[in-house]
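explain this:
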Amino acid sequence: MKRTLILGASTNPSRYSNKAANMLHKHGHAIVNIGLSGGEAAGVPIEKKGEIYTDIDTVTMYLSEPNQKEYYDYILATKPKRIIFNPGAENAELEQLAMEHGIKTERACTLVLLSTGQF
């Protein structure tokens, strides 16, 4: 199954990143949670940016554009196949950088993609 990095992971069950972690887990996807809060989402620890994972299929973005800049190099180093920009996380600059590195980008909602079998 595809391994997904959730950028902006949260322990708060009302946050969409937390809902995505649980739905990805429910659908059998391995996840990596990256965030600032610590704790866990869907039973997986929330890590701070550090270890670079090289087996990431998808980065699903839950950070607003201004908060993404410090993660550009980290995201590119993971060499994901795609980045999903969830509503509110759209970022034309990062989309351009990703495309220059052969990474597909998608402006979509991870929850909808999972619910409709399009993930």
